[in-house]
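Researcher: I'm comparing several assemblies side by side, and this is the next one on my list. It has 227 residues spread over two chains. Same procedure as the others: predict the full complex and return the structure.
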Amino acid sequence: DAGVIQSPRHEVTEMGQEVTLRCKPISGHNSLFWYRQTMMRGLELLIYFNNNVPIDDSGMPEDRFSAKMPNASFSTLKIQPSEPRDSAVYFCASSFTGYSNQPQHFGDGTRLSIL
Amino acid sequence: AQSVTQPDIHITVSEGASLELRCNYSYGATPYLFWYVQSPGQGLQLLLKYFSGDTLVQGIKGFEAEFKRSQSSFNLRKPSVHWSDAAEYFCAVGGNTDKLIFGTGTRLQVFP
């Protein structure tokens, strides 16, 4: 079975541009998580969905960040406008049932560089 | 509130030596505990998990971890490290919510 698929793997863009990161969770998984990883702050949970509904977005840094999950097989994380401090690796993860006794499966991440 | 502490930021071992990575957690009830490994340029891969039962759990790649409730610890061990084990290792704790709380990670370096 395919794992969590993220695209693009790398994104370089200029400050002020809109950035859209995409994620396809593992088929059958009904929870999806977006994380950000930086050297300074480590791994941070931004938002997670259960059955396509956002459950907790308290980790979203500010209004420039938004996430959607229009169906069970696709999610996006959008940054508009982007800023250099948004440069990081963004991971998507999915799990079954949404209870934390089920392991989360991670994609390979999107490395985002904002110039 | 749940929390995870990985006290060692960076560990260096020789190939073939034994390894123990420390993890301490804070949680009011029985936690769900995980160890993940991250190789450069990749996502986190699950090594092993503890939910209940036998406190010594076996994982992939020859790793094991022991849950010690009295010490609030879930240390990761491997009897003989291979050069390919060089990576970053994350301990995580979950409970009665959907979230996992991750530690700050331990970077393992392996010398030939």
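Model: For your comparison table: The interface with chain A takes residues 32, 34, 36, 41-46, 49, 51, 90, 94-100, 102, 104-105 of chain B (CB under 8 Å).
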